[in-house]
From TrEMBL:
Keywords, alphabetical: Membrane, Transmembrane, Transmembrane helix
Protein name per its UniProtKB record: DoxX family protein
Record-annotated membrane-spanning stretches: 6-22, 42-59, 65-86
């Protein structure tokens, strides 16, 4: 069974995003809300999860499970996006408007993953 090209696009996006957690970890640890313990560990977990789930998306037998995992991951990291929006110190230099756009983008990404379950 062949998978659609847009699923491979999604997989590539998550793999590259996951690798980015290791390339520039400070960017990610900065947006983790202070109420969460051990931001460095959470960053590593999120990065590994994105890479592994991206790879699993490319395997027909596991792509549906990977899509569910991506949905769970998107929900889990949503507090970081909210924190980034409300806290100018975690803005990464992005405008308030761009940070706001990231919030509904999460919903679009959730729907995109849902399409592969």
């Amino acid at each position: 069974m062949s998978l659609p090209w847009h699923l491979y696009l999604m997989a590539a996006l998550y793999i590259f995003a996951g690798l980015n957690h290791f390339r520039v970890p400070k960017m990610y640890t900065k947006i983790i809300p202070p109420l969460f313990p051990s931001p460095k560990t959470l960053n590593v977990i999120a990065g590994v999860a994105e890479v592994v789930l991206g790879i699993l998306l490319c395997i027909p037998k596991t792509s549906g499970y990977a899509a569910l995992g991506i949905m769970a991951l998107l929900i889990a990291v949503f507090p970081a996006n909210v924190y980034m929006y409300i806290n100018d110190n975690a803005s990464l230099g992005l405008s308030k408007q761009i940070r706001f756009i990231r919030l509904p983008l999460q919903v679009a990404l959730l729907y995109w993953a849902y399409c592969y379950i």
